[in-house]
Amino acid sequence: MKVFLRTWQEFELEDIEKSLFVIGEINGECFACHTIGIGLKERFCPNCKQEFKYIAFRRKIDGSWLNRFREIHPRACFIEFDDFKKFFSKKEARKLLDI
Ligand SMILES: [Zn+2]
User: Fold this and answer.
1) Could you say which of 22, 87, 89, 93 would form a disulfide bridge with 29 (CB–CB 3.0 to 4.6 Å)?
2) pLDDT band for position 99 (50/70/90)?
């Protein structure tokens, strides 16, 4: 029986920043160039052409939702958006302090 379990893994924040597809209710956003309204089945950003290697969800999701996206995006890595946002915000805050 295959199930989805959340795991802890090390990532390069910058790698996620440039290849993250953020999925909302009916379409998605490229995190790198902030293009919105991207079809959920797209594997590349129609604007910056970046491949979506990581996928995060704006809404709370369950297993059936993940199964659906696993079929559409078989190679993508699903990440918890809140985790990513936490570290991204920290990094942005540090950038502001350096100015
Ligand atoms: Zn893009």
Assistant:
1) 22
2) low
